[in-house]
Amino acid sequence: MNILLVGSGAREHAIAKAIKRSKKPTNIFCFASNNNPGIKELSSNYKIGKITDTKTIADFAKDNNIDFAIIGPEAPLEAGVVDKLKEQNIPSIGPTKKLAQLETSKSFTRNLLRKYNIPGGPKYKYFSDINGVKEFIDSLGGNYVVKADGLMGGKGVKVSGDHLQSIADGIAFCEELIAQDGTFLIEEKLIGQEFSLLSFSDGNNLAHMIAIQDHKRAFVNDTGPNTGGMGSYSDSDHKLPFLTNTDIEQAHKINQATIKAIKDEFNEEYKGIIYGGFMATKNGVNLIEYNARFGDPECMNILSLLESDFVELCLAIIKGNLTQDHARFAKKASVCKYAVPIGYPDNPIKNKIIDVSAVENKELIHYASVDMKENELYETGSRTIAIVSVSDSISDAELIAESEIKKIKGPLFHREDIGTEELIEKRIKMMADLRK
Ligand code: AMP
Ligand code: GLY
């Protein structure tokens, strides 16, 4: 089988490893944005280009007799790469541009959920100017979130009490978005614990993945600026220690109802991954946002634990006969930690040599934003290397990840607290207090 992989971060490195573990003989053709030595080693052909250049990607696919494509990041979905491949009769794991609005337009998703009576949405209102903004914020008791409507690379959301210290701050951010010609949503601020619950979808049937918690803030104890995600963990029972079975069931139901709503709305099947970013609150599970792809770092936890054959799973999505049995996971815990350049995310140092030779288990390495020049590995200013470990408990997995990530040499840092008992106890206590 010839498989096209679009993207070249740690998420795509995890995908490439999962493809290569399949019983089916495969050739990977990677259309990459950077020189990732981990993916390159697993690929038959590795081409660097603009991952939003749909025509070049479709030509690359045709030239290489691709059987199907897997799209890693959101930018090529938004650019319509799945639509372009479809014109060549090449199926993809990833939705068409129209269906990817689930991620690319926050108002689209909120309106879809409202129209189809899907529970779990906070109060919200859509704005394209400042009229009524203050009144709506007041009606939420000053607990609110401002969200730019489109993709903003994680910079489009500001939360009261967190980034916005007063109503005047909130209005100023809205004015900023209006000046950029942007439309935005104001939402009720949800209080609780965030978790990710992703499902594979063939358009009708879902196969759910394990629950995972990501860590968005740059520094220990959830301080510092927001990042793409500094690391993540999952537990051996596939639910997180602060979640109930009902929370998991609610998240499954919301994902299932959304896929059905998409089909009813567009008469088109959503094939790929639906990634729910949820908040467990005292009143049950709420949806914060949807993504139309694997999470990064969540993908590393998920695929490190996947016991079933990933290529068979992709084929079931394409054929439309997906069952939960296609996505079976080891009853183990996992911890993923990212090493990132000093100064990340605001002022990262760039193009410094890093050295992974001291890492004992090289299988745990997932390369992200790196470059390889004259046999030297360089960081390129963003999340650099993810270490992912699997063990019987979260604490055991954390010890392994921590000891290995420390062996990477170079001007990098990571969050020592991800997956530690101390941090997890805090999450459990927070939820227990809320539910009282
Ligand atoms: P998003 O880009 O929608 O994932 O938002 C980024 C982050 O903002 C989320 O991971 C949450 O931490 C926070 N956030 C977004 N919406 C809400 C909300 N309604 N209530 C509380 N926090 C939110
Ligand atoms: N885990 C955050 C993201 O993939 O968007």
From TrEMBL:
Pathway: Purine metabolism; IMP biosynthesis via de novo pathway; N(1)-(5-phospho-D-ribosyl)glycinamide from 5-phospho-alpha-D-ribose 1-diphosphate: step 2/2. Pfam families: GARS_A, GARS_C, GARS_N. SUPFAM superfamilies: Glutathione synthetase ATP-binding domain-like, PreATP-grasp domain, Rudiment single hybrid motif. Residues 110-319 form the ATP-grasp domain. Its EC number is 6.3.4.13. SMART domains: GARS_A (SM01209), GARS_C (SM01210). Its cofactor is Mn(2+); Mg(2+). It catalyses: 5-phospho-beta-D-ribosylamine + glycine + ATP = N(1)-(5-phospho-beta-D-ribosyl)glycinamide + ADP + phosphate + H(+). GO terms for biological process: 'de novo' IMP biosynthetic process; purine nucleobase biosynthetic process. Keywords: ATP-binding, Ligase, Nucleotide-binding, Purine biosynthesis. The keyword Oxidoreductase does not apply. One of its GO terms (molecular function) is metal ion binding. Gene3D superfamilies: 3.40.50.20, ATP-grasp fold, A domain, ATP-grasp fold, B domain, Phosphoribosylglycinamide synthetase, C-terminal domain. Belongs to the GARS family. PANTHER family: PHOSPHORIBOSYLAMINE--GLYCINE LIGASE, PHOSPHORIBOSYLAMINE--GLYCINE LIGASE, CHLOROPLASTIC. This is Phosphoribosylamine--glycine ligase. It comes from Candidatus Magasanikbacteria bacterium RIFCSPHIGHO2_01_FULL_33_34.
